[in-house]
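Sat 14:20. Reprocessing the chain from the morning session after the first attempt stalled halfway. Input below, unchanged.
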Amino acid sequence: MKYALKERIGNPDLFTGRKEELDFFLGWIREIKEEKSRSTVILARRKMGKTALLERLFNITFHNNNDVIPFYYEIKETPMWVGDFCVDFSLTLVYQYIAFKTQKRVYLDIYEKGNFERARQIARQEGIENIIELIDGVEYSFRNDQIDILWNIAREAPKNIASRNNEFIVQMIDEFQFLNSRIYWDKDKKNLAEDIAGGYLSTAESKIAPLLVSGSWVGWLMNLLMELLPSRFRYYFIANMPEEEAIEMVYKYSRFFNVPVTEETAFSIAQIAEGSPFYINAIINSTYKPKDLTTLDGLARTLEFETLDMRGDIKFTWMEYVASALPRINDKNGKNIVLYLCKHRDREVTRKELLEKLNLDMTDSELELKLKALVNSDIIAQGTSNMRYRGVKDNIFDKVFRGVYEEEIREFDIREIGKEYNEEFKKLQANYKNLLGKYNYQKGHYAEYAILDCLLYHGRERNEILKSMTRNLPANFNFCQYSKVWKYDSSMEYSTSFNADIFARAVEPGDYSIIGEVKNRDTKTFSLEEAKNFLIKFEAIRKLENLERVIGFIFSRKGFTEEAEEFCKEKGIACTDDERWLDK
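Finished this time. Tokens:
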């Protein structure tokens, strides 16, 4: 897939997991054409991958070119006059519309965003004159200081374009909460447009141009939606990644950033991070010296640095949340409340319990206001009722907050947190060894990673021995240098899903690329039906990736049925059941 919009994640291959979310929203986007999709808000804390998800959805929708036009806009955190905002919003829409219609990504990177005449010229040049009326309307209102009209034109533009041209548009607006806190009615930026988001009350109900918005401050954004846009959005909460995706991310980032891990430490990173992509990235890319993620002790020291040192990305990010709440918690009572909720984060706590257990010198109404402010700052979470609250379900945030504030409340030695990490890793080590014993975890769950690592790092140097362990290879085949070695998943770009455990693209055109499958089962041999299904998948991926010199490869630790073996030989599919493929 060609990526029209440059994604901030960097190398597109770093995008990991989120299969459930992508499947859901790609289905949601497809249903826009049937006018079934309702405006939705994506909710999650910072660095959980919301922007990466929106950018990937934009690129897939752009690539599919299937009658739904993607529009992505990020509301910046910097202050902006509403006139400039409307012009930027409208012309961003214009250029993305032209880019989609022409499939020319160059229009996504226009420098003269405020040049109306240039926009008209490009629209005429590309034969997309139906967009010129919008440009004219925005310019006229802007030049004549008709700000209310300008805001209406800009806000309604996606819906009006879709309606006039019998089209469908998906509006992806990132950091939606900044609409009310960073946009000003006046050029001097003194009169905050603190209710401007309410203009979407009717707009958000559109079925031909529904909104998919997100925000990094969950409590703040939810409060805005409930007060100004009640019942206009469905909520979609992004949770941490499941274990399989978290481990995949650990290995992928370990390989990309050249930070070695072992099977045991990869398992431990995924577990201690509780599937948080932010924590996994912070641990792999920590600036701690000397960083060693091949031992549990080295991992514990790295995490201790990230949690307790201001140079740690984890602590720095959480302290930005805390800083936003400081006016509300910068007293002993506020800090004690957060510490108490952190300690009991496994359950909900009532206001009555907080008043009694902490001996708080305040009324229930005063406590409610303080707790509401903390919820809006994402320092704590609202419970199942207005009377109930709970700490953030995050064992790392607990340690960050305690490391900064607990000593103010009670006698506390910060070294206790390091001891807690050591205890947690001892439990993880025991759990890991238990999995090894019960389920052959290392060679089951990690088999594909072992083969991927072998191809990427040792394929060329171990060429002869790997060839000797593998049947049905072409006479001129050699394991070589590969530009990309990872799993393959086409389900996000194409309506039909094609998945492969191994996809290794050769660097040189004369060498063979590899599309492979890994079966590490204890009892079942690889069957003829599985071999036929693999061949269908192999041919589909070969065609999608436009590969001329490529072989199919199957690793089956339990071996192959006679029929499957004969089929693979006939079709030229390389086979192996040699466990030395899994050796380090």
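The mean pLDDT is 89.
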